Amino acid sequence: MRDTTTITNTKGSALLSGLGYGAIAAIVNYFLAFEIYGSLTVIFGQVFVLLALFTRGLLAAMVSALLAALAISIYTDNVFFFVTLLSEVAVVHYLYQRRIPILVADLIYWCVFGMPFSYLYVPTVIDVPQSFLFLILAKLLMNGLLYTALAILLYQLLPRRWKLTTMTPVSDTLRGRIFYLSFLCIIISSLCFSFLFTVRSTQQAEQQIVSDIGSKANSLRQVTEDFVDDYVVAVRNLRDSMERVSDYEEKLMLMDYTQRNFPGFVTMLWSDAQGTILHGVPVASFSAAFNRMQESPSISDRDYFLMPKASGQGYVSSAFRGRAIGEQPIIAISAPYHRNNRFAGIIEGSLDIPELVRLVQRTDIDPRFQSVIVTDNEHQVIFATEDTALAPLSYYEPTYARNPYSLILPLTRIQQRDVLYTQRMNDYGWNIYVFSSPQEMTDLFLGNILILALFLSIITALFAVVTRRFAHELNRPLEQLVAQLGDPTNVPDLPSRADVTREVRALTDNLIAARKVMVDFNHQLQQQVEEQTADLARLNERLNKLAREDDLTGLLNRRTFDELAEQGYHEAMATRGHIALILADIDHFKRINDTMGHPVGDACLRCVGQLIQQHFASKGCLCARYGGEEFAMFVTDIDDVHAMVTDFQQALSQSCEVQGQVVPMSISMGVVEIKQHFSGESFRRLVAHADKLLYESKDAGRNRITIEQL
């Protein structure tokens, strides 16, 4: 009866101890799980499960493992942890009972059972590439070795009264124990440092991907906006010009001139108030289409006619296929045409989508890792890189997938490939998606793990040699000293002082040697991190410069100019300061390129850039190369803007010298000067106004300045 009661009390105590250790393990697993890369998580709650095994036995360990597995299963939504953690405790206990060291037993468990089971199970719940599956398995092994080593070291620090069961020492020799405990310290420090270094490296790689595809998405958004904006302005300017002239033939000439100067327009048409087409260019295409029709062609059912008619505003359509003149994908841009302040029809240009495709293809997308999809406001594909296998005008909207790679970027699948992506939307409701493969981060992580494995192998072999030599020098006098100190009846006959000093010195030298190996390795890793950080800083500095300036002229690029000028514009509107926006375009620049060659043309552009620096930038003005041969200047606090631009125009005519020869050039300018009208309208309207004045200068014969004060 007494034996039965004792057994019952022992089981009850083990059960309570297991619940206590398990509660701590569950809290640590749920609240202190450490995410190292995407959904890869390092857990430490199993430390307390193994402590329960070492101090309270198998029953307490199984109870605590059950609670620890419950917590991590809830945290990761993966019940497979019940299998791995409970079986780990059982296998480690079984091997330990057969005199296999705990750390070795855990290594055997993961290599023989844990990793193969996980290799078979993981693909059933999540579809990941083989490289990422290997990464999961490597993480499981490293995590298991780390928390097992921590549990063994913590066990050495526990008070003896807490240990109802006692671990059998891994070795009964001083050499074996020193080697085992020292190696545990190396394992723990190396794994911790490796995890931290890997986390930092992958975070940097992830942030680089986020920054890279984000900047490219922003660039593509700006490219698409600017591309459509240019053609919207062209249609509006044509409409304004046609409203100002009365001669019918002159109107037709304006249409023909616009279509030829804006090659993205496949066709342009002019309709009356009922939607009947009055004229279209190219004339040959429209004549052929009219001859095939039985009646006068009408566009009265088209949105690009109905919307301007109803709203009195310009309209940009979604992508669609043409029906009368060609069937290629197009985007219709239209503006209402008025006569005597009454709606009299529309002016419409059919923008060729392949023209936009060619523009997008010139962006710096890395085809090895990155893809691009551009859709309109109805999610129809306008552009997609070849690897996506999406046809123009097909429907596309990304579907979110479970993301094991990143906590920052969403994940989707394209052609059975996992890709991270970012999304931007331009002012026309177009969606710009830039995709990047996570393979780069996965390869980085795997590379760090391989380096760690190699390092641990070298350190293990080196440390075994060092320990053996150390034991040969130290064991005999220390064993004598331990034997004497272990006998309470005798007064210890300590070795001579010289012997103690020599032994302690030998021990110290070997420990310092081991520490030096670790410090040197840590220093090398730290130096590599610093060098990579410095390289990234230099690269970022170069990228920032390239993102702000035009490489040929040294002036600001269009995007940077628009940002700074818009900021200055709004400040001037708030303080009522005098400003002016100047748009300038070199006359007949194409003739210079065609007759004298592009190198001479580039030299002329540099010359113009230098003159702009001298006449404008030196006075604190913002100056930019706004397009191919177009420049923009934003002037503040200058009393006589007309004199400034006149001086510049005169200086340009004789200042461009290339290869010892003066290249005569002229320039047309449109200037909007604000001195009184501080209405706070948008900066984009100011740009459109200046562009309109530039257009008037061109129409008036070039080499002119059209200035208007508001």
Automatic annotation (TrEMBL):
Keyword Cell division annotated: no
Enzyme class: transferase
EC number: 2.7.7.65
Keyword entries, A-Z: Coiled coil, Membrane, Transmembrane, Transmembrane helix
UniProt GO cellular component terms: plasma membrane
Cofactor(s) listed: Mg(2+)
Signal sequence, start to end: none
Catalysed reactions listed for this entry: 2 GTP = 3',3'-c-di-GMP + 2 diphosphate
Sequence intervals crossing the membrane: 20-40, 47-72, 107-126, 132-158, 178-199, 444-466
Protein's GO biological process: cell adhesion involved in single-species biofilm formation; negative regulation of bacterial-type flagellum-dependent cell motility
Single GO molecular function: diguanylate cyclase activity
GGDEF domain mapped to chain residues: 577-710
Statement: the UniProt record of this protein carries the keyword Amino-acid biosynthesis: no
Pfam families the UniProt entry points to: GGDEF
Coiled-coil residue windows: 522-549
PANTHER family in UniProt: DIGUANYLATE CYCLASE DGCM-RELATED, REGULATORY COMPONENTS OF SENSORY TRANSDUCTION SYSTEM
Record protein name field: diguanylate cyclase
